[in-house]
Amino acid sequence: MSEYSRLSTESEVLLAVDNLTVDFPTADGVVKAVRGVSYNLRAGEVLGIVGESGSGKSVSSMAVMGLLPKSAQIRGSISFRGEELLGRTEKEFMQLRGSKIAMIFQDPMTSLNPVYKIGFQLAEAVLAHHDIGREAARKRALELLEIVGIPFPERRIDQYPHEFSGGMRQRVVIAIAMANNPDVIIADEPTTALDVTVQAQVLEALRSAQRETGAAMVLITHDLGVVAGQADRVLVMYAGKPVEIGGVDEIYYEPRMPYTLGLLGSLPRLDADRAERLTPIQGSPPSLLSLPPGCPFVPRCPLAKPTCDEQEPELVPTGEPGHYAACHFSASLIGKRADEVFAVTAADAALPASYGAEIEGVTGQVTAIPEQPKAEQSE
Amino acid sequence: MSATDIDPSAPILEVRNLVKEFPIKSKGVVRRTVGSVQAVSGVDFAIRPGHTLGLVGESGCGKTTTSRAILHLQPANSGQVLFQGRDVTRMSRTELRRMRRDMQIVFQDPYASLNPRITVSEIIAEPLKIHGLYEPDGRAQVADLMARVGLNPEHGNRYPHEFSGGQRQRIGIARALALKPKVLVLDEPVSALDVSIQAGVINLLEDLQDELGLAYLFVAHDLSVVRHIADEVAVMYLGKIVEIAQTTELFEHSQHPYTKALISAIPIPDPRRERERERILVEGDVPSPADPPSGCRFRTRCPLRPTLPEGDQARCSGEEPTLIGRGRGDAHRVACHFAGAND
């Protein structure tokens, strides 16, 4: 096990992911979706995994649940309470899923079965792992609906999913996830499809689910605001790899990886000066089909130096306990603000140099676009 | 961009009592009209040249319908949309076409709003050709537009699928700019983009406004983005504007309970503040616009109403509040009988 996942030992490690890699063979080549993810999840803690689309945050969690398609090549180790999960049969996974580890998916429209009543689906989750009567299961279902804050649960329990709104459906999904008092809940973008006021309700329901069951939670999201309010620790992913991990305060106040700093700088926030310009990260994430050697963030990184092209940085301690960053120059970020590192610009960087090569029929040199000469901003 | 300077010029776009209804059809073969949904019920606002009005609200509040009615893409049932003093809802087809040179829209989904079968140059040139403005130096015009939105003009003969989401949104913006419009309607222009990409597009929109003096109607559900870009913000709920004010005023002194709840529900990417924050939780979901609550439309979810004496509560359900100026001048208007009651 790598050093950084062994560090603190306050409470029992429930889920240990070590050097997990997931490859998908496709017609165009092997997509390296996850390239070495390691983390420990301890009892009662909330680990936030953040990253942009395609960073591998969902795929790594699907691997934990054993939900990836057969074509996926998974290596590394995923252990739950010391028992290895990789290589288990579907039958063995089924005993674990829903009882010890539960998952909440992004889209509540598709994670409930439209032809069964809510009560049936809740009871089904309970009955799958417990040998109790139908009546007892229904009672438990009512109790669960109450915990997640569904009004009039006695009436609602006999309704179908289409009679529920998006936020209510997501709360039902949360209720199902907590039905068997799991030890670990994995929530994959649980509030992404919802409006803000409904998001606040669902986050509240998630909190009560966690309080009731005492479960540890992996919260996967692209929303840095949601993570700030929910997580104890944060793992930032980029191009299939963790690039920074640490306590939530360290990640937000002292990020040591340019990508994390850039993400925070590109967010318009309610508590910032309105006149302040945002600092976008130039370019877009690399293709996971043909990653060049070296740090995958190089094409977008304002700090990149020749070493970065040659050697992919490993996660190394930053000096604070439990805080690790994968950047050769992470020390130079100490005390830096996003606008001191990233250019305040509106231009889009040219397509990454590797981009044109993937596309058939595109020939010719892809050159960087010169900055547009712009009138000085008065603000 | 500066929000504070008072612009004496007349509004370039004014919306008065705009109403848009959609019929509800019965099931079966005949599909008779059995009722109607009022998606937008009486919306008023004005935008001055060079300024941005942010229109915010949750899904189904009518903000997108409003933006489409303004461009006459979905004709309004009643009310007026005055573009430079002329009513868009009464224009002939020829007049509409002329108007659309001055008023353009950027759509939310950069994947669905670009024709995948033609090159980016052709996409951007299309409005010019339709309006007969594609001059012999058209190629240069297109290249200039691409450069203006921060794209490499050399990529003009690529197809939309070869671009990322953020770049596609820039193509959509270039297409909207082609006719040198005065007003841009931006319908959730950044909500489909990843944050690191979103910031670049927001900066671009700010720069374009400064350079070209454009007026924006910025429709979005993300209040942090709207706060950043808008000079004035209107909050919609179930087809009505419940509060409208200058941006800073709205975010610092919101008076409508819905606005307060919306602002308090936005997560801030700051763990310490998040831990200390108290949220105003709104119960339940948005009611169906086909059957809106009587009186104040927000009363079924209002966190303020249960704290009011009974007589006042009856007023909420009996009498519909009008959008009136409150406290700090007429620029801040609120539709609530008891706005600021618990402050």
Automatic annotation (TrEMBL), chain A:
Localization? Cell membrane
In this protein, which residues make up the domain named ABC transporter?
Answer: 15-264
User: Do you know which Pfam families this protein is assigned to?
Assistant: ABC_tran, oligo_HPY
Kindly indicate whether the keyword rRNA processing belongs to this entry. no
Keyword tRNA-binding listed: no
What's any one GO cellular component for it?
plasma membrane
Its GO biological process annotations read:
peptide transport
Belongs to which family? Belongs to the ABC transporter superfamily.
Name used for this protein in its record:
ABC transporter ATP-binding protein
Native organism is: Actinospica durhamensis
From TrEMBL, chain B:
Task: Please name the Pfam families in this protein's record.
Answer: ABC_tran, oligo_HPY
Q: Which GO terms describe its biological process?
A: peptide transport; transmembrane transport
Write down the superkingdom of origin. Answer: Bacteria
User: Which residues belong to the signal peptide in this entry?
Assistant: none
Q: Where are the transmembrane segments?
A: none
Q: Which UniProt keywords apply?
A: ATP-binding, Nucleotide-binding, Transport
Per UniProt, residues of the ABC transporter domain are: 24-263
Task: Output the InterPro entries linked to this UniProt entry.
Answer: AAA+_ATPase (IPR003593), ABC_transp_ATP-bind (IPR050319), ABC_transporter-like_ATP-bd (IPR003439), ABC_transporter-like_CS (IPR017871), Oligopep_ABC_C (IPR013563), P-loop_NTPase (IPR027417)
Q: Does the keyword Hydrolase apply?
A: no
- Nucleotide-binding is among the record's keywords: yes
Q: Which GO terms describe its molecular function?
A: ATP binding; ATP hydrolysis activity
For this protein, the record's PANTHER family field holds: D,D-DIPEPTIDE TRANSPORT ATP-BINDING PROTEIN DDPF-RELATED, TRANSPORT ATP-BINDING PROTEIN
The entry sums up its family as follows: Belongs to the ABC transporter superfamily.
Mind telling me what this protein is named? Answer: ATP-binding cassette domain-containing protein
